[in-house]
Amino acid sequence: MTFTSDSASTRFSSSFNYNNQTADTVTSTIAVFKALTVDDQLAVLWYAYTGMGKSITPAATGAARLQLAEGSLNQIKKMSHLEQLEAMRDLAAQKNTQISCSYGILSANTKLAFWYELAELMAKGFVVPVPAGYQMSRDGAQVLETLKELDFGQQITVFRKVVIEMGVDPLAD
Fold first, then answer.
1. Are the beta carbons of 103 and 72 closer than 8 angstroms?
2. The pLDDT of residue 62
3. How far apart are CA 119 and CA 70, in angstroms?
4. Buried b vs exposed e over 110-128: b needs ≥16 C-beta within 10 Å?
């Protein structure tokens, strides 16, 4: 499905109530996020986690068992930057790889914490960051702006939904 910025704007504006943000806004944000290119999905996660990470962290890591994800995170750290980017793309695109399968069996909170830790590793230079000068699409920028306007609970709902569906659950049929 091709997704244009006009359709994203229409989808957001038709479900957004400026006096009271509704569940439709969360649903629309998730739908638009899923329609983004894999690179724009990764960029939105990167900018959201680095920009809003302080509020996401307690919800993600408080109930997470990050030690279950440490093996995958360490594997990613040992890769070249090109391999790191491919591993993240594979997660977002749900490609059947060893890291995607390891990620796929994690709990929702651990998946939230995984992406937070990955963003931290990117910020510290251990993992390839978003390239300097990367131009996110209009739809990606709209998703990011909408995320900033959501309340904390709605933000977590969006992040939880999008990261849960990444990777491959080897136990699912």
1. yes
2. 52
3. 14
4. bbbbbbbbbbbbbeeeebb
pLDDT higher than 60, residue 14: no
Domains of the chain as residue ranges with CATH: 5-164 (1.10.2090.10)
Residue pLDDT, tens place only, 39-53? 999 999 988 887 776
Task: Tell me the residue type at 10.
Answer: T
What pTM was computed for the model?
0.80
Residues 6+ apart with CB under 8 A from 40: 136, 137, 139, 140
CA torsion sign, 8 to 139 to 164 to 153? negative
Mean pLDDT of the chain: 82
